[in-house]
Amino acid sequence: MKVTETGKAQQETAEKFVHLLRRNKLKVTQPRLSVLQIISAKETAISQPELEKLLGDTVDRVTLYRVLATYEEKGILHKIFDLHGTATYALCSTACDEHHHHDEHVHFICSACNSIYCLDEIKLPKINLPKDYRLQSIGINAVGLCAQCKTVSH
Ligand SMILES: [Zn+2]
Ligand SMILES: [Zn+2]
Ligand SMILES: [Zn+2]
């Protein structure tokens, strides 16, 4: 019984991703689906090396690089740099589309395990720039201990 339910849920997620790709006029390929499946199953942002490990031999490095670049361009994933300057990726909010990201939320970075969480409910402040300045992006990182690391240290 439980197995069937899990299977059904997986199928539904796969269908959701097929729709997402079609909506963005992207061909449905196994590497594209696998990347979405891994990222959506994780609560934290994921780096390209981590993705490579999880995908194993199924997707080569160049393909993965292209998939991530396309997703960022299409407004499916947004990039966050961790404390070591490594790029990590998280799913975008539904408000994002091609060339227009609206991921205006705070990112929490754990200083112990380096995990990055999207805090969607914390919006960024309005920035009033001096005349003739043009804003392209704002990023605010909150650094501290995540719930798991906090528990360990006590
Ligand atoms: Zn976005
Ligand atoms: Zn942590
Ligand atoms: Zn985010």
Automatic annotation (TrEMBL):
<dbReference type="InterPro" id="IPR036388">
    <property type="entry name" value="WH-like_DNA-bd_sf"/>
</dbReference>
<dbReference type="Pfam" id="PF01475">
    <property type="entry name" value="FUR"/>
</dbReference>
<dbReference type="InterPro" id="IPR036390">
    <property type="entry name" value="WH_DNA-bd_sf"/>
</dbReference>
<dbReference type="InterPro" id="IPR002481">
    <property type="entry name" value="FUR"/>
</dbReference>
<protein>
    <submittedName>
        <fullName>Fur family transcriptional regulator</fullName>
    </submittedName>
</protein>
